[in-house]
Amino acid sequence: MLSSARKRASGFTLLEILVAVGIFALFSAMAYGSLLRILDTRDRLEAERDFWRGLTLSLMQIEEDLSQARPRNVRNPNGLPDPRPAFLGQPVDSRALGDASIEFTRGGQLVLGDGARSDMQRIGYRLRDGNLVKLVWPALDQAPASEPREVPLLDYVQELRVRFYAPAGGWVDYWPQNPPDPNNPLPSAVEMTLTLEGRGEFQRIFRVKG
Fold first, then answer.
1. How far is residue 202's CA from residue 91's CA, in Å, rounded to a whole number?
2. What is the pTM assigned to this prediction?
Protein backbone atom coordinates (compact mmCIF):
# COMPACT_ATOMS: atom_id res chain seq x y z
CA MET A 1 0.00 0.00 0.00
CA LEU A 2 2.73 2.43 0.94
CA SER A 3 4.68 1.66 -2.24
CA SER A 4 1.63 2.34 -4.48
CA ALA A 5 0.94 5.64 -2.72
CA ARG A 6 4.55 6.73 -3.27
CA LYS A 7 4.32 5.91 -6.98
CA ARG A 8 1.16 8.00 -7.39
CA ALA A 9 2.76 10.88 -5.50
CA SER A 10 5.84 10.79 -7.69
CA GLY A 11 3.86 12.44 -10.61
CA PHE A 12 3.68 11.69 -14.35
CA THR A 13 6.28 9.80 -16.26
CA LEU A 14 8.13 11.40 -19.17
CA LEU A 15 6.17 9.30 -21.65
CA GLU A 16 2.86 10.46 -20.20
CA ILE A 17 3.97 14.08 -20.42
CA LEU A 18 5.05 13.65 -24.04
CA VAL A 19 1.71 12.04 -24.93
CA ALA A 20 -0.18 14.89 -23.23
CA VAL A 21 1.90 17.54 -25.02
CA GLY A 22 1.35 15.76 -28.34
CA ILE A 23 -2.41 15.66 -27.84
CA PHE A 24 -2.44 19.33 -26.81
CA ALA A 25 -0.39 20.29 -29.90
CA LEU A 26 -2.73 18.30 -32.15
CA PHE A 27 -5.83 19.98 -30.79
CA SER A 28 -4.10 23.39 -30.93
CA ALA A 29 -3.24 22.87 -34.61
CA MET A 30 -6.80 21.81 -35.39
CA ALA A 31 -8.18 24.84 -33.54
CA TYR A 32 -5.74 27.18 -35.31
CA GLY A 33 -6.68 25.77 -38.71
CA SER A 34 -10.36 26.22 -37.96
CA LEU A 35 -9.71 29.79 -36.85
CA LEU A 36 -7.85 30.56 -40.08
CA ARG A 37 -10.73 29.15 -42.14
CA ILE A 38 -13.22 31.24 -40.17
CA LEU A 39 -11.16 34.40 -40.66
CA ASP A 40 -10.72 33.67 -44.37
CA THR A 41 -14.46 33.10 -44.76
CA ARG A 42 -15.18 36.32 -42.91
CA ASP A 43 -12.80 38.28 -45.15
CA ARG A 44 -14.37 36.81 -48.28
CA LEU A 45 -17.86 37.60 -47.01
CA GLU A 46 -16.85 41.17 -46.22
CA ALA A 47 -15.25 41.57 -49.66
CA GLU A 48 -18.41 40.17 -51.27
CA ARG A 49 -20.58 42.50 -49.23
CA ASP A 50 -18.41 45.50 -50.17
CA PHE A 51 -18.62 44.58 -53.85
CA TRP A 52 -22.41 44.31 -53.93
CA ARG A 53 -22.79 47.46 -51.87
CA GLY A 54 -20.50 49.40 -54.23
CA LEU A 55 -22.28 48.09 -57.32
CA THR A 56 -25.72 48.84 -55.89
CA LEU A 57 -24.79 52.37 -54.83
CA SER A 58 -23.24 53.08 -58.25
CA LEU A 59 -26.33 51.91 -60.12
CA MET A 60 -28.58 53.88 -57.78
CA GLN A 61 -26.51 57.01 -58.47
CA ILE A 62 -26.82 56.55 -62.23
CA GLU A 63 -30.55 55.87 -61.95
CA GLU A 64 -31.07 59.00 -59.86
CA ASP A 65 -29.13 61.18 -62.31
CA LEU A 66 -30.92 59.88 -65.40
CA SER A 67 -34.30 60.24 -63.74
CA GLN A 68 -33.53 63.97 -63.39
CA ALA A 69 -32.34 64.56 -66.97
CA ARG A 70 -33.50 67.88 -68.45
CA PRO A 71 -33.86 68.95 -72.12
CA ARG A 72 -31.56 71.93 -71.64
CA ASN A 73 -28.77 72.59 -74.13
CA VAL A 74 -25.54 74.17 -72.90
CA ARG A 75 -23.01 76.56 -74.37
CA ASN A 76 -20.39 74.82 -76.46
CA PRO A 77 -17.04 75.10 -74.63
CA ASN A 78 -15.15 74.69 -77.91
CA GLY A 79 -16.26 78.13 -79.09
CA LEU A 80 -18.63 76.74 -81.71
CA PRO A 81 -21.84 78.69 -82.30
CA ASP A 82 -24.07 75.63 -82.03
CA PRO A 83 -24.97 74.68 -78.45
CA ARG A 84 -24.01 71.36 -76.98
CA PRO A 85 -27.07 69.04 -76.95
CA ALA A 86 -28.93 68.42 -73.72
CA PHE A 87 -28.00 64.74 -73.91
CA LEU A 88 -24.95 63.20 -75.57
CA GLY A 89 -24.13 59.50 -75.81
CA GLN A 90 -21.64 57.37 -77.69
CA PRO A 91 -19.92 54.01 -77.53
CA VAL A 92 -17.07 53.88 -75.06
CA ASP A 93 -14.03 56.02 -75.84
CA SER A 94 -11.23 54.94 -73.51
CA ARG A 95 -8.79 57.66 -74.57
CA ALA A 96 -7.59 59.84 -71.72
CA LEU A 97 -9.01 62.95 -73.37
CA GLY A 98 -11.94 61.27 -75.11
CA ASP A 99 -15.53 62.30 -74.64
CA ALA A 100 -17.66 60.76 -71.95
CA SER A 101 -19.88 57.81 -72.82
CA ILE A 102 -22.85 59.77 -71.46
CA GLU A 103 -23.08 63.51 -70.88
CA PHE A 104 -26.28 65.36 -70.04
CA THR A 105 -27.98 68.11 -68.11
CA ARG A 106 -29.72 67.10 -64.91
CA GLY A 107 -31.95 69.02 -62.54
CA GLY A 108 -33.22 68.49 -59.05
CA GLN A 109 -30.02 69.59 -57.35
CA LEU A 110 -30.33 70.99 -53.86
CA VAL A 111 -29.86 74.78 -53.97
CA LEU A 112 -28.69 76.43 -50.76
CA GLY A 113 -28.54 80.11 -49.91
CA ASP A 114 -30.49 83.13 -51.03
CA GLY A 115 -31.02 84.35 -54.56
CA ALA A 116 -32.24 82.74 -57.74
CA ARG A 117 -29.98 79.88 -58.71
CA SER A 118 -30.49 77.07 -61.17
CA ASP A 119 -30.92 73.57 -59.81
CA MET A 120 -29.32 72.12 -62.95
CA GLN A 121 -25.79 70.92 -63.58
CA ARG A 122 -23.88 69.17 -66.33
CA ILE A 123 -22.74 65.64 -65.53
CA GLY A 124 -21.49 62.56 -67.32
CA TYR A 125 -20.18 59.01 -66.97
CA ARG A 126 -17.14 57.39 -68.50
CA LEU A 127 -14.64 54.55 -68.13
CA ARG A 128 -11.10 55.58 -67.25
CA ASP A 129 -8.23 53.21 -66.39
CA GLY A 130 -10.55 50.43 -65.26
CA ASN A 131 -12.72 52.73 -63.16
CA LEU A 132 -16.27 53.92 -63.74
CA VAL A 133 -16.25 57.62 -62.86
CA LYS A 134 -18.90 60.30 -62.67
CA LEU A 135 -18.04 63.66 -64.22
CA VAL A 136 -19.34 66.90 -62.71
CA TRP A 137 -18.68 70.16 -64.55
CA PRO A 138 -18.21 73.32 -62.47
CA ALA A 139 -20.82 75.25 -64.45
CA LEU A 140 -23.80 74.41 -66.60
CA ASP A 141 -22.61 76.60 -69.48
CA GLN A 142 -18.98 75.63 -69.60
CA ALA A 143 -16.15 78.03 -70.21
CA PRO A 144 -13.45 77.12 -72.76
CA ALA A 145 -11.12 74.40 -71.47
CA SER A 146 -13.45 73.74 -68.56
CA GLU A 147 -12.55 70.43 -66.90
CA PRO A 148 -15.00 68.28 -64.95
CA ARG A 149 -14.39 66.92 -61.49
CA GLU A 150 -14.14 63.12 -61.44
CA VAL A 151 -15.92 61.10 -58.77
CA PRO A 152 -14.85 57.41 -58.69
CA LEU A 153 -17.80 55.01 -58.50
CA LEU A 154 -16.68 51.47 -59.29
CA ASP A 155 -13.32 49.69 -59.63
CA TYR A 156 -12.18 46.75 -61.78
CA VAL A 157 -14.42 47.64 -64.72
CA GLN A 158 -13.09 46.03 -67.88
CA GLU A 159 -15.70 47.34 -70.29
CA LEU A 160 -18.56 49.83 -70.38
CA ARG A 161 -21.15 49.73 -73.17
CA VAL A 162 -24.15 52.00 -73.57
CA ARG A 163 -26.97 52.41 -76.03
CA PHE A 164 -30.10 54.51 -76.15
CA TYR A 165 -33.77 53.90 -76.76
CA ALA A 166 -35.36 56.43 -79.09
CA PRO A 167 -38.90 57.66 -78.30
CA ALA A 168 -39.94 56.57 -81.78
CA GLY A 169 -38.82 53.03 -80.89
CA GLY A 170 -35.61 51.07 -81.31
CA TRP A 171 -32.14 51.04 -79.78
CA VAL A 172 -29.39 53.27 -81.20
CA ASP A 173 -25.67 53.51 -80.42
CA TYR A 174 -25.40 57.31 -80.57
CA TRP A 175 -27.39 60.18 -79.17
CA PRO A 176 -28.63 62.49 -80.54
CA GLN A 177 -29.70 60.65 -83.62
CA ASN A 178 -28.70 61.79 -87.07
CA PRO A 179 -30.56 63.92 -87.96
CA PRO A 180 -31.55 65.08 -84.47
CA ASP A 181 -35.21 65.12 -83.52
CA PRO A 182 -35.95 68.56 -82.01
CA ASN A 183 -39.14 67.22 -80.45
CA ASN A 184 -37.26 64.50 -78.57
CA PRO A 185 -33.96 65.85 -77.21
CA LEU A 186 -33.70 63.00 -74.68
CA PRO A 187 -33.75 59.24 -75.17
CA SER A 188 -36.49 57.30 -73.42
CA ALA A 189 -34.03 54.94 -71.75
CA VAL A 190 -30.34 54.09 -71.46
CA GLU A 191 -29.03 50.54 -71.46
CA MET A 192 -25.72 50.19 -69.64
CA THR A 193 -23.61 47.03 -69.63
CA LEU A 194 -20.67 46.72 -67.25
CA THR A 195 -18.08 43.95 -67.52
CA LEU A 196 -16.37 43.55 -64.17
CA GLU A 197 -13.13 41.69 -63.58
CA GLY A 198 -13.88 38.19 -62.33
CA ARG A 199 -17.61 38.93 -62.13
CA GLY A 200 -18.88 38.87 -65.69
CA GLU A 201 -21.47 41.21 -67.18
CA PHE A 202 -24.09 43.29 -65.42
CA GLN A 203 -26.74 44.94 -67.55
CA ARG A 204 -29.25 47.52 -66.44
CA ILE A 205 -31.82 49.64 -68.26
CA PHE A 206 -32.47 53.11 -66.82
CA ARG A 207 -35.47 55.15 -67.66
CA VAL A 208 -34.80 58.76 -68.68
CA LYS A 209 -37.68 60.73 -67.24
CA GLY A 210 -36.80 64.21 -68.40
1. 17
2. 0.75
Distance CA 61, CA 185 (A): 22
H or E segment and range at residue 31: helix 14-67
List, for residues 132-150, the tens digit of each pLDDT value.
Answer: 999 999 888 877 777 889 9
Whether residue 180 has a cis bond before it, omega within 30° of 0: no
Q: Quick one: pLDDT at residue 116?
A: 55
| Summary count for the chain: helices (H), strands (E) | 2, 9
Burial of 182 (0-12, 13-18, 19+ CB in 10 A): exposed
Calculate the alpha carbon distances from 92 to 31, 52, 128, 162 in Å: 51, 24, 10, 7
Q: Where are the alpha helices (DSSP H) in 118-165?
A: none
